[in-house]
Amino acid sequence: MHAADVAVELPLLPRTSSIFAALRLIGEHDQLAVVITDDGGRVKAIASALEITRLVLPDYAVEDLNLAGLLDDASLADLFAAAEARTLGDAIDAGDLGVRGVGEIDPDATMLETACHMAAEKAQILRVRGADPERFVALPAVIDALIALRGGNA
User: Fold this and answer.
1) Rounded-to-integer distance, Cα 39 and Cα 132, Å
2) Domain range for residue 100?
3) Confidence (pTM)
């Protein structure tokens, strides 16, 4: 089994997308991360679901979890409004959104090679080199493939 065998297309978000749009995409599609493109539609960065979620939460509640308990569902409207008003590009430029470059893997890389590449780069998503349209390999698919290759024996 090779990287190309488990590669999938992922939704691409332009830098001009709102933080809320990214959060919604993560929730609706069970994404580990979002793939961010530049103004020309070229893949430029990956931001983890956790980093996107962190942008929506108030700093004081993350830093002091006792204060997080004071937030109720009514707080969501304000948090989501702020997330709707701010773009991914704004957050990246301000240094508030930790993004990483997009690692690549050869389409014929084995599953073990792909897993090693992901572990070395600390990447949950890799772009498949040369794929058109853009295709990506996600860590859960690699783990599933490794387990399947083992043969399911306990």
Assistant:
1) 19
2) 3-150
3) 0.82
Half-sphere exposure in the Cβ direction for 31 (13 Å, CA): 28
Residue type, 27: G
* Residues 44-83: tens digit of each pLDDT: 999 999 999 999 998 888 898 888 888 888 888 888 999 9
CATH number reported for the structural domain that contains residue 90 in this entry: 3.10.580.10
CB neighbours (10 Å) of residue 119? Answer: 10
Pairing of strands 125-128, 12-14: unpaired
Split into its structural domains, the chain has a count of 1
Number of Cβ within a 10 Å radius of residue 70: 10
Structure tokens at 106: 């050869």
